[in-house]
Specification:
heterodimer, A: mainly alpha, B: alpha+beta, Alpha-Beta Plaits, 4 domains, six-stranded mixed sheet, four-stranded antiparallel sheet
């Protein structure tokens, strides 16, 4: 049934987003990109793709930052086009996507202010999709209560902050806790929201968001192994209450002390089993340690995310494609940045460590 | 090379040529050939990445130059007063060929870079200056506005009136207010501290809200609009700003206000509470502002003069940079022979232009001052050459329309030639009206008259399209006049040129026309115009005419394939495709057309039988063959059965003959044991030949036989499927095209009706009035009628027949 009227409101935008998606770089593009000797070659090569001559008006010595900025700008323009053309409930769904960027920006600003960085410089580094009117005022706040009362209360992400008002002072640890609490609230809220949207959207999005939650859970666990400041109860509070690891896996993870326990938890979920496959042998070989495992894990997470997002394009009549497109494109920009960075720093051997999308 | 004169009938003879160009003259040669524009180069290294080709460095350099030129262009466009750009044909051309070419380009590169750095510097200084001017301006505004505010306050203080009403902001708490009141009454000075500055108007409400929340309401804020906008010199964008002044108590709060204000993009200015000091600083600011503005004016002037110098040369530079880029991109298609320092190029060119190309090559060599001439060979090939049709300004438009539907294969009959007449004629059938036709005609004539002038100018998109099709419009107008005469329509009225064949004897009630005995010699009798059954008559007349025209047009289009088959010696196609198709078409629709003509030729009033309906006849021909109810002529039933059988036979004929003969041919070849042998042996031998010949001497004829491209897979199933599709397409196409031609009828009726409505709704009502009022009304409605006629009928409606005529032409 949902297919019957879906196209009335969203057919156009779905077509647009699928068109955008067919412009993502393919394996062949990456192959030729990695052959580039200089960033000038890189620019020539990119101009043959859907990026077109987005760098044509940049003066000659290119920096990787410019490439990233311009590529992000394209993505932002595309998103804004989608957003302005969307109607309810798709517009609300798209808004939810921007909340993640808002949270990132808020955290960035608070951290920056804490380290007494220049406000304007911070504002420039904010993601353009997460900008809201009162954002600049964030830098006057000194504690969470004030932050909430003065600025956040009128933003859509206010409800997420309600849970962490108790945290008294702003320091690095607290900010990290705030970020995770807020993100947890955000993920759960988004999860509930997509559940109200009904079948195909909910199926696809719950899968992706569940993985996102699990990824955060595992990351929090691994990162909090050696810190005494974060008690295990506190840790448990940061875990999102969704995903495949919830509730049993989360409970074990909350008490976990080393990476083997994390692995055991992941063994229980079929899809996640591969995360620790090779790392076991690597660890036997010796000196990779937890840090190496975490780095490797991060890459596997990205691969998994790309995989899940690609799957969402296999279904029609659902909003998951919009979310997935944003995520895939972000990954693509990360890839481009990585390759460009490798070219700039002449690290050819590491150049192939990007995550291909198609 | 039979026909020496270029015709539209078939596309030009092409030859594949190979050029050996020494590297020194490569650039000039390509530039020369580019000017000529009749060689299509093939990409000889399709596997090479774009950035690994030979001339990437040069392309990159020209791209950098192009970027600079674009920068100048955008700067010139942003300038508020128009900077004149000298048109290209006015400026002296920059020599980019010959011995000094490299030097010239280097020089141009340097000049562009210099101009850029100068412009960027000037932009920067201009920007800083105007930034400072803006700050001073804002400061002055802040001073003035706050002065007004302070004056009001002191006035209020002296009058001891109720301050609450004049100053109370609903957001200010009462406690604060009392506090302030005390302040006012105690001294004339303001002890209460404040912050003043300017902020973007769009942000004022957010700013106020945030402050309110941050300070928990402990503030008093006032703001006023600054009337004139501030213009950013870099982007030319306007921003409107507001002056604000905020009173608050305590250093901590003030620091917070400052921080919020700064992060919200506001600019703060120090203001002294003392009135004398304020007026002092106002004076100072005004003085400094004056100085700055003089400096700013001078900077702006010198920047402008720099832009004007750039504008003088811009078109020239653009031209050169584009040409250079195109030249190097073409050179990237060539094969670079490192050993002999030559570039090898392959491309198609019209055989007729070969001498011109030779001349151009020699010319390029002479200009570059070397003695090595590029060598041109003609290669023999069995690849299908590209289709090239030489057009002139008259045929160009028609050819473009035809090309939109598909381009004929090399040397096939070009439908564009016939479109020159058929397209305007079909249009005219739909648009038949002398008046409207004349409007089109004169509009086209005007455009042709203005041709030389307009061709040089940049026309906007819509006008440009009309201008491009001016000769089409001219012919469409002419033909419309002709069909208008046929329909006897001029702005929906009829012309009485000769004596009408009918007259209406005066009577009350219904009057019947009486024949006067003579026949109206040309076109529709005007008497039909007023008759009650006029519409019925024209309706049936136009419908039948549409079908007759359609059948003729389709038959003609079908015949166009015959010369192709004869030329390419494909007798099988004649027997297996052309003949059955022709029989099929003629036995159904040709027969219908004949019946229409026959029915017209009979005076039915003298016959005893009722005239039969041809539509029912056609339906009955299929549904109940053999029986004809009201007969058109005797023996009709038999004839129709024969025709139907003929048409039915044609379908399997089309379907089976061609695949069968091809299968048989394949069997023959296989029977003689030639399978694959020629293929396997041929290719290597040929290629060694090629290499040998190149090795031996430069100018032998090289034979490039690329077997695999031409050898389509002789897969039998593909042939069958292709033939099935072709047959179905033709049979259904016949029916649907005939139906499509009914559009001719529908649109010509619609056109006539619409123009009649326009006439009766506007002019006719007014024509009856008399006196001054009548004249005025006549003028007004007359203009209205004329404008709407021109717009609705001639422009909008012209598009509809146009697009339909296009569709029809596709057949």
């Amino acid at each position: 049934m949902e297919g019957l009227f879906f196209n009335v409101n969203c057919g156009f935008l779905e077509g647009i987003v699928r068109g955008y998606k067919s412009g993502t770089l393919t394996q062949a593009h990456y192959a030729s990109l990695t052959q580039c000797e200089t960033l000038e070659d890189f620019k020539t090569q990119l101009s043959a793709t859907d990026y077109g001559n987005f760098l044509a008006n940049e003066p000659s010595p290119l920096s990787t930052a410019t490439i990233t900025d311009k590529a992000t700008q394209i993505l932002v323009d595309q998103f804004n086009f989608l957003r302005t053309n969307a109607v309810e409930p798709l517009s609300k769904f798209l808004d939810y996507i921007t909340y993640a960027y808002m949270i990132d920006n808020v955290v960035l600003l608070i951290t920056g202010t804490l380290h007494e960085r220049d406000t304007h410089e911070l504002l420039e580094r904010c993601h353009p999709l997460g900008i809201f009117d009162t954002m600049p005022a964030l830098c006057v706040a000194t504690n969470v209560e004030e932050l909430y009362q003065s600025v956040l209360v009128e933003t859509p992400i206010a409800p997420y902050f309600r849970d962490c008002l108790s945290a008294a002072d702003l320091d690095d640890l607290n900010i990290e806790i705030i970020r995770n609490t807020v993100y947890k609230a955000y993920l759960e809220d988004f999860y509930n929201y997509v559940s109200t949207l009904g079948s195909p959207t909910a199926d696809v999005m719950q899968n992706i968001l569940g993985f996102e939650a699990d990824r955060r859970t595992i990351n929090i666990t691994i990162n909090s192994f050696d810190t005494a400041e974060l008690s295990k109860e506190q840790r448990a509070k940061l875990f999102p209450a969704i995903g495949r690891l919830f509730p049993a896996g989360n409970n074990i993870l909350a008490k976990a002390d080393d990476i083997d326990q994390v692995r055991q938890v992941c063994e229980n979920v079929g899809e996640y089993r591969s995360f620790f496959d090779n790392s076991a042998s690597a660890q036997n070989n010796g000196d990779l340690g937890d840090l190496g495992v975490a780095a490797q894990l991060e890459e596997r997470f990205f691969r998994m995310e790309v995989h899940l997002n690609k799957l969402s394009f296999l279904q029609q009549f659902q909003y998951g494609v919009f979310y997935s497109y944003m995520k895939l494109k972000e990954q693509e920009i990360r890839n481009i940045t990585w390759i460009a960075e490798c070219i700039a720093q002449d690290a050819r051997d590491r150049m192939h460590d990007f995550i291909p999308i198609f | 090379m039979g026909d020496d004169y270029p015709t539209l009938f078939r596309s030009e003879q092409m030859s594949l040529v190979q050029l050996y160009i020494p590297t020194e003259v490569a650039h000039d040669t390509v530039a020369g050939l580019g000017g000529l524009g009749n060689v299509q180069f093939k990409d000889l290294n399709p596997t090479v990445n774009p950035f690994q080709r030979s001339f990437v460095g040069e392309i990159r350099r020209t791209e950098e130059m192009a970027r600079r030129v674009r920068f100048f262009e955008s700067q010139i466009q942003k300038e508020r007063d128009v900077v004149p750009i000298r048109p290209l044909d006015d400026s002296a051309p920059l020599v980019t060929v010959g011995p000094s070419a490299a030097h010239n380009i280097d020089e141009l590169d340097v000049t562009l870079a210099e101009h850029e750095t100068r412009l960027v510097q000037m932009n920067e200084s201009y920007k800083t200056l105007s930034e400072r001017t803006r700050e001073l301006l804002e400061a002055r505004h802040v001073l003035r506005e706050t002065a007004v505010f302070f004056e009001k306050a002191s006035l209020a203080e002296t009058q001891q009136t109720d301050i609450r009403t004049s100053f109370d902001d609903s957001s200010a708490p009462l406690l604060q207010h009392d506090d302030r009141e005390q302040q006012y009454s105690s001294t004339l000075q303001f002890d209460l501290e404040f912050v003043a500055g300017t902020i973007d108007r769009a942000r004022i409400s957010t700013f106020e809200r945030v402050l309110w929340r941050v300070l928990r309401g402990n503030l008093y804020m006032n703001h006023t609009d600054i009337a004139e906008p501030f213009i950013d010199p870099g982007t030319g964008a306007e921003t409107r700003k507001n002056v604000f002044i905020i009173f608050a108590h305590g250093d901590a709060l003030l620091a917070k206000i400052r921080k919020v204000a700064e992060s919200m993009g506001a600019t703060l200015y120090p203001i002294d509470p003392n009135a004398d000091k304020r007026s002092d600083s106002l004076r100072e600011v005004t003085d400094r502002l004056e100085d700055l503005q003089t400096v700013l004016y001078n900077t702006g002037l010198s920047r402008r003069s720099a832009l004007v110098t750039i504008g003088e040369n811009l078109a020239r530079w653009q031209d050169v940079v584009r040409k250079e880029k195109a030249v190097y991109e073409t050179m990237n298609l060539f094969n670079y022979d490192v050993r002999r320092k030559t570039l090898v190029a392959e491309g198609w060119c019209p055989t007729r232009d070969m001498t011109m190309i030779q001349m151009a090559l020699r010319h390029a060599t002479e200009e570059s001052g070397t003695s090595i001439v590029p060598i041109l060979h003609e290669l023999r090939t069995n690849k299908t050459p590209p289709t090239f049709t030489r057009t002139n300004k008259f045929t160009e438009g028609f050819q473009t329309i035809m090309d939109a539907y598909g381009i004929a294969t090399y040397q096939e009959v070009n439908p564009g030639l016939f479109a020159i007449i058929t397209f305007p004629f079909l249009f005219a059938v739909m648009f038949g009206d002398i008046g409207h036709g004349l409007i089109l005609f004169f509009a086209a004539l005007y455009m042709i008259f203005k041709e030389k002038q307009w061709a040089r100018e940049e026309l906007d998109e819509i006008l440009g399209q009309f201008f491009y099709g001016r000769y089409i419009i001219l012919l469409m107008g002419t033909f419309s006049v002709y069909t208008g005469l046929m329909y006897n329509d001029i702005f929906s009225k009829s012309l009485h040129i000769w004596h009408s064949g009918w007259e209406f004897p005066p009577s009350n009630g219904i009057s019947f026309a009486v024949s006067t005995g003579h026949v109206y010699p040309f076109g529709l009798d005007p008497a039909w115009h007023a008759a009650d059954n006029g519409l019925v008559f024209t309706n049936s007349y136009k419908m039948k005419m549409a079908i007759v025209l359609g059948v003729i047009h389709m038959t003609f289009a079908l015949c166009l394939q015959l010369p192709n088959h004869i030329k390419f010696k494909r007798p099988l196609d004649i027997y297996a495709n052309f003949i059955p198709q022709m029989i099929f078409l003629q036995s159904i629709f040709g027969y219908l057309a004949l019946c229409i003509l026959y029915k017209w030729s009979i005076d039915w009033s003298t016959r005893s039988t009722e005239p039969p309906s041809l539509l029912n006849m056609l339906i009955a021909m299929f549904l109940s063959p053999g029986t004809v109810e009201p007969q058109l002529y005797s023996g009709q039933g038999f004839v129709q059965v024969v025709l139907l059988l003929l048409a039915l036979v044609c379908v399997p004929w089309m379907l089976c003959t061609k695949p069968y003969f091809q299968w048989k041919e394949m069997q023959n070849i296989r029977g003689q044991g030639y399978v694959g042998l020629g293929h396997r042996n041929g290719a290597p031998r040929e290629s060694t030949d090629e290499v040998l010949e190149i090795e031996e001497e430069g100018n032998g004829r090289v034979i490039v036989e690329e077997m695999e491209e031409e050898h389509e897979q002789h897969d039998f199933s593909e042939v069958v499927i292709h033939q099935i599709i072709h047959t179905i397409e033709f049979c259904l196409g016949c029916i649907s095209h005939t139906a499509s031609y009914l559009r001719l009828w529908a649109l010509s009726l619609a056109h006539a009706q619409l123009s009649e409505v326009l006439w009766s709704m506007t002019l006719e009502k007014v024509l009856g009035l008399s006196g001054v009022f009548g004249i005025i009304a006549l003028v007004i409605t007359g203009t209205f009628w004329f404008i709407s006629t021109v717009f609705i009928l001639c422009i909008m409606e012209a598009f509809t027949p146009l697009s339909f005529a296009k569709l029809e032409e596709k057949e």
